[in-house]
Amino acid sequence: MRVVNPRDTESALEWQLARIGSAAWQEWSLKFQRMAFGYANDSGWHDPADALQWLDHHALLHEGAAPRGALVWYQAADRVRVGCSLGSGRLVGPLPSGRIGIGVLDQLSTDYLWSDPHFPFGH
């Protein structure tokens, strides 16, 4: 499925990389991704686990290497989190440490899936 967001992939990644080190987004990984892709208002999902369940129900999740700009859904520190793939097994977003950073997916979790940056209820 081709997804068109208010902010394109490279602009969304630039927005995220500009916030590396910030602790302002702790526990808000879904909101961070929604805002990165240009959606100012709520995504319609309660949290990343709710979003993951919706995406699974609609067959929008994929296994394997996440392409650049894909949302990566992973389990870490007893909760579902979401980051944005930089490619080559790296992602950016609020990490379990509580700060925005670049993480290596294999070091964060062995349990992950990816989806296109799809916010069906965002506006």
From TrEMBL:
Highest taxon listed in the record's lineage: Bacteria
Protein name in UniProt: Uncharacterized protein
Organism: Kribbella amoyensis
